[in-house]
Give the backbone structure.
Amino acid sequence: MQVKVCETALQEFPADILVLLLPPAFPEALQSLGPDLRDRIREAWEKMPQYPRDSLVLLSQGEIKAEKLLIIKVPERVDVFELRDIYSAAGREIRQKELGSSVAVTLTGLLDPALEAEIAVEGIAQGSYLPELYKTSGNHKKVEAVSVYHLNPQEVSGALRKAELLANTQEYVRDLVNEPASRVTPAFLVEEANRLARETNSLIEVLTLAEAEKMGMGAFAAVARGSEQPAFVVKLHHEGEKRNQELCLVGKGLTFDSGGLSLKPWDAMTTMKSDMAGAAAVLGSFLALSRLRPQLDFIAVLPLTENLPSGKSYKPGDVLKAMNGKTIEVLSTDAEGRLILSDALCWAVQGGATHIVDVATLTGACVIALGHETAGLFANSQEWKNQILLAALKAGERIWELPMFPEYRELIRSEMADIVNSAGRSGAPAGAIFGAMFLKEFVPEGIAWAHLDIAGPSWLPRGDKKIAAGGTGAMLRTLVELGLSF
């Protein structure tokens, strides 16, 4: 998608469709239109119900260059979340109804122009995405260009460059998550990491399974041995000015999760190609941050494997040893994400990271608690937690803090080993907290760490008015905003 700012008069705006978000105060920008078209817009606007109930498509009848107008009535006050949803719904309508491949936008004036311009582009991109990777016919024409009308281009040009990068990167992340697991294997993601390293002039280190075992990554290795697909642990390092690697993003990369020997029901496996959504978000964030803030020194760590049953699979009752020496009793091989993340966190700490955030589709319990709109946030540092919450607010992504009180340490207590990875198939209360308490064991005191459980928002089982079903690219924007604030 290409994005530009345009100060041309509205009637000369080159686009297939002009998106008009009309607040109660009729926008001044429309005063430049011819009286006939302006009257038709006003008449339609007055008859329309309040958003989000409806929108209206008008033909311009040759009075302006854009063939169609998409009119949406908006309230007098909107916050960044609601405005993003409005633009996303507009993008989805444009794509589904095939209203055009080039879109023009006029800003409402309800928010800061640069902020609204960024939200408009990202929202339209998010809504217009459809996961039609393998359709052989009937594909909807993509939105290829978005132009934003503003009389002072310099005021919004920086925001639009950022929005264009994030829009295209989010499409890349969503494609990765939507691809079948037979294509997006651990080796495929290593190829992508190598490509991004070349494009961003970054360093990359790739551990094979044998090399990971030699380094003491017993938890990761146990999960990986069950699959015939080669497994890897990847570290990307973008060298900035300070070269201290303080910031580290860790992404769970389970390219398919069958549950291992603790086999999932068949219907619970149908979306398990998306169990690498954390790794996909981290890859996208690495690319975007390297371009938006090339002076930032940071690393990304990706444990990449499948979790499958075989004669080499680890078993319930096994005791594993992680890279930091802690022993783990296995009660369920379907609690594997925390196992591969434990060694990834240890490697990040060993590399000198002082501020870590891991992103993982970790628990169904978090979906039950927060649904598909919101990610769960856990952290061992209030300052680091606040920084992440602020980044999410700027990014327009919903996250919610969940507790890690000392009493919850009892959840992971084991009679056999240092800790236990699961309560077993019967489950336990506070499942999302269980997972976070487990991960916390692999981050020493004094290192700021946060865990984002994105099991809910990373995948939508069915589309809605705002966004298509499938991978969403969740937390990409938040991780980028976090890096920009670092």
